[in-house]
Each structure stands twice: as C-alpha cells, then as structure tokens.
Amino acid sequence: MNFGNQSEQGSFESKLDLTPLIDCIFQLILFLVLTSQITLQVADVDLPFALEGKEAHAAELEVPPLVVNVVRQPPKGPSDRTGAIVYNGRPLSPRSLTAELKKEANYDASPRPEGRGRGWEEGQGGKKLSRLSVLVRADRGVKSEHVRSVFEACIEAGIYKLKVSTIQPE
Amino acid sequence: MSWTNLSEARYEVPLDMTPMIDVVFQLVLFFVFSLKFVAFEGQIQAYIPRDRGTNETAPAEADPWTTTLELSWEEKDGGRVVARTGQYPSSRDGEVRDHQFPQERSREAAPAKPRRPESDFSAPRWDLVEEFLAGRKKQYEARSGGKDLPVTVSFDNRVPWQAVANVLDICARQKITNFALNMQEIEP
Predict the structure, then answer these.
(1) For chain B, which residues make up each domain, given as ranges?
(2) pLDDT digit string (tens) for A42-94?
(3) Which residues of B touch A47 (CB under 8 A)?
(4) Closest-approach residue (CA) in chain A for B121
C-alpha cells in the first residue's frame, strides 16, 4: 500500500505493488512442481500392516532405492485382486520392468565421468549383482503373483537388496 | 512507526502482512510434505539370497533344520489362506511332521463390515505360527551354537499380499535373518 508522497493536496496515487503477487505465483509453481515430483515415485497404495516396519533412514543408503509400486486395479468383483506394476508413474508389464531395472543397474555399475561407477558385486556362480536396492510398495489386497513378478524382475536385473513397505496397524 | 507531527500523520505506513503470510505458507507446505510421505511408512528387509537366479539347483548340503513355511490359497469359506509347515515338532522327541496351522475364527462373525479384499479372507492363526518359529529358532540356536535358523517361505500366487507381509513381520520380530522367499510357485 503505497501512498504518493509527493503532493500534499491529498491526491493519492496508489501504485499497485506486484511483489506479493509474484511471491504467490512462485509459491503455486513450487507447490505444483513438488507435488508432481513426489507422486511420480509414490503411487497411492494401501500398504500392508506390519508392526515391525522400521522407518527408512535415507542417509544409510548412498543411492535412494528404486521405488516399484504394485497398485490395486479397481475390483471388478468382490474377490478381484488384480494388481498392476507402476514404476516412475507409468504402468509396466513385468518384462518392461525387468528392462528398466536392468538399465538402472547397468547405469549404476558403469564407470561415470566423475569416477564414481559403483561396479558389480560378485555373486555365486559368477553372477553380477547390483548394489542398488529396490523398495516394493505393494497393496495389501493384491495377489502375491504380482509382487512375485516384481521380485523375479529384480533377480533378473541382478538386484538382491529388497525392502518391503508397510504401515503400522491402526 | 507513528509520527508525532500531525501534518505528517497521513504518511503512516501500515505493517505489510504479505511477506509474513508467504513465510507461513512455506512452513505449512514443508510440514505437509515432510510428515505425509516419510513418517508413516515403514520398511522391512526382504531377503533374496545372492545365489538366487542362477541355474544351479538347491545346494546338496541343505541344512536339515531348514524350516519351510507354505502359504496356500483355498476357495472354501469365501477364500482362505492356509499356513503349513513341514517341520512341526511331533510328540516324539526329534521327529518333525507336516502340520497345518488352524484358522482364525470365521470372518463371517462380523457381516456388517464392508467386504474389502485385504481382509476378506480367512487367515491362519499367526500367533501360533510365530510361536512355532520362535520355538524352532531357540532349539536351533541351542544345537548349533548361535547360528541363524534358515527359513524358507513359499506362497501361492493367489494369496493376498497382506498374508505374506504378516510372515515377513513375524520373521522381523523374531529376528530371523536367514530367511528366503521361495521363488518357486506352489502347485495349486
């Protein structure tokens, strides 16, 4: 609220100050950017109940885990438990998930320009194992075959460090 | 800032609240995002041993104390998860036998509740499963001098994920770390 301070005769010119408006628009943009980034990784899933679910400490891992969601499709009947794999916001078939995970594992292991290529670990039978970890966020009502397909995709890609997301029972 | 000089009173500048509202909005956003996505989810380690995925068959020297837990699905009573083990202690010393854990009371007891896929099935008595695993772990540790009991869990494709998560929960609580999810499907 600016008052023209040049004249004393009372002809107030109020100049519209745009600064608060720009601030508000900036807030809105920030909000939308943050919301879309987070929902990309974390799909809306009813996680299974488990008392022993420990909170993740992101600092423990060098690289944050890859998040694979198994969401429940809208049930077509009372006992329909079909699920779908959602990775990075996109629904994938198990084969596509395997390809994506392999890509991530190869990228993580390959030498990087800054010299931090993490390489492979040695597994039994000479199998290359990735140092990546995968967080599986599966809906509590889906059939286990969908989660099994996620596990198999991880094994195919050489990822053996798995975490399962749970929530505390109500 | 108030002016004592009356002729300059018209230049009083009121306190501008806009930046304060901006900052408060920032704080609110921060708490909304940080509390919702981090604090409530927990994680349980699911062990897939490093030798899975190779074409080798099971190693010849499988530990005879390996405890198997099988979750299968039956369509009776509107769907039930049945837990079985091959290593239940029988009354004779040292003998183990196949055993099917009893089911919980029928869910039909509360028909008014809405039927939801995650609870709309009859589950086994998880407390008995936990008791069995705890007992076996104690026996194994006594005999082997503190090694971790190997446990293998296999599950039918139709078993709801909550049931498998319950088993993971039990193993985490009993500190069973040498635990493997069997990738072979159970024959229906």
Answers:
(1) 6-38, 67-104+115-181
(2) 777 888 888 888 877 655 666 778 889 998 887 776 667 888 999 988 899 99
(3) 41
(4) A79
Q: Is the pTM of this model over 0.90?
A: no
Residues of B whose CB is below 8 A from A156? 53
Measure B84 CA to nearest chain A CA, in Å: 17
| Alpha helices, DSSP H, located in A42-158 | 94-109, 144-157
Indicate the angle between helix axes B161-173 and B126-144, nearest 10 degrees. Answer: 40
Are residues B51 and A123, on separate chains, in Cβ contact within 8 Å? yes
Which one of A10, A53, A156 has the shortest CB-CB distance to B43? A53
Spans of chain B below 50 pLDDT = 38-39, 52-57, 60, 110-112
Q: If you search the block for the tokens 């009502």, which residue do you land on?
A: A141
Per-residue model confidence as pLDDT tens digits over B14-33: 888 888 888 888 888 887 77
Query: For chain A, which domains are there?
Result: 58-164 (3.30.420.270)
